[in-house]
Design brief:
- The structure is a homodimer of 214-residue chains.
- The first copy, chain A, is an all-alpha fold.
- In chain A, 70% of the residues lie in helices and 0% in strands.
- The first copy, chain A, is built from ten helices and no strands.
- In chain A, helix 4 runs antiparallel to helix 5 and helix 9 packs antiparallel against helix 10.
- At the A-B interface, helix 9 and helix 10 of A face helix 9 and helix 10 of B.
- The structure holds a DNA duplex (30 and 30 nucleotides).
DNA sequence: ACACTAACTTAACAACGTTAAGTAAACATT
DNA sequence: AATGTTTACTTAACGTTGTTAAGTTAGTGT
């Protein structure tokens, strides 16, 4: 038949146009700053045309962030080169920080806002836990490798809680910077310094000290 | 004269009524969930009456958070009892975490959202840096005490960057919990555990180890 | 030739933050 | 005592928002 396929392709093309327009606005204006009407205007469609492709505003921007989340995992995959497991974790941390500081609006929407009642579809179930598509899973695997290599203190036996602590460390620095970095109330040290100290402190707190045998 | 004073008192009474109504709604619905009209309805005034007392929605809720920020400093002041500087810091951390988890909507608005262009008025300038009213200043003073007592590693010489790192640690755990704690994507460990590990890791990373002389 | 599907438009709804204009009562001034 | 001024508040309205209901219109299947 082929005609059905063409129609589907055409539909997903306008879907992509919507996503691209939304992304561009979103990057500079953030979620609250972008209206459905402006997205529509940008691609010269009527505002309601978007609702053919996405249930509502949230779903549209959630799709955007879903893409970024997968891209982050890809960057992990392709950039984390070191064979030393602790070095790998540090690289993951730095890439994550770089992502957050470069894409503050995406970061805000992805990790600083709740999106309740987003039940998982089939695609999600495939993605989840897969280190190639799921950035958290990538982190967790690296934590497990470091743990297997006996690099963490003995008491720290749960890869999940270590991953979540590492995540919280970098997230703490980034999200404070994004939300309050321009606030003159606090005499902020340069973000680079805060990142460096946080990384140093966290890994010192996690790692088995050299003299302890494994 | 006295009449001027009475009028001022009356005005600040309705101002407080507005603040109380706003607080109650805000606690359960969050910033985006509360409208000026609902606040007005609650105190049986017209929506525009609020604008006599506050410039806009943001200023109203900023005032609310300003109150909470001062209250947090008071709780620090009255509850942090330990004489050991590291213990004091740990207590500060726990109180802060408790505050965030108990008041997620206030926490979101205070520390997970930007409020740009809020220039400081006279009252702000009094408050800032005063440990009795400024929670960050309280933290920083405790950090300085621990530093003076030689409790941190030698390399860590800047009280500001240590304060900011400590803040980021607890903020990381709390804000991830608030934003993503209900997200089934991650197999979250109990928040109590995550807090405990974060505190443990951070202080281990910061403290001078016992055998090192001061 | 005719019915159907589905992507898209037009028009409209209710709710939002906010402003302009008016009211009415308390106060100050002559 | 009469007049003007201040001020806390109301009514009405504006422009914008996300979203829905009701068309329209073109291409497809029969």
């Amino acid at each position: 038949m082929g005609v059905k396929e063409r129609r589907e392709r055409e539909k997903s093309e306008t879907r992509d146009k919507i996503l691209d327009a939304a992304r561009e606005l979103f990057v500079s204006e953030g979620y609250e700053g972008v209206s459905m009407r402006r997205v529509a205007e940008k691609i010269e469609y009527s505002p309601t045309a978007i609702y053919v492709h996405f249930a509502d505003k949230k779903e549209l921007f959630l799709e955007l962030c879903h893409q970024d989340y997968a891209r982050l995992a890809e960057v992990f995959q392709s950039s984390v080169m070191s064979t030393d497991p602790i070095e790998r974790l540090k690289q993951i941390g730095m890439i994550y920080i770089d992502f957050g500081l470069r894409n503050p609006n995406h970061y805000k929407f992805m990790f600083m806002t709740s999106h309740p009642a987003h039940e998982m579809d089939e695609e999600d179930r495939e993605t989840r836990g897969n280190p190639e598509q799921d950035a958290y899973a990538f982190l967790k695997r690296a934590v497990e490798q470091a743990m297997d290599a006996g690099r963490f203190r003995e008491e720290l036996r749960d890869a999940e809680v270590i991953s979540q602590t590492l995540w919280a460390s970098v997230h703490g620095v980034i999200s404070l910077e994004i939300a309050k970095g321009c606030d003159a109330w606090v005499d902020w040290r340069p973000i680079k310094d805060r990142v460096a100290v946080m990384m140093d402190v966290t890994f010192r707190g996690l790692e088995r000290s050299p003299q302890e045998g494994q």
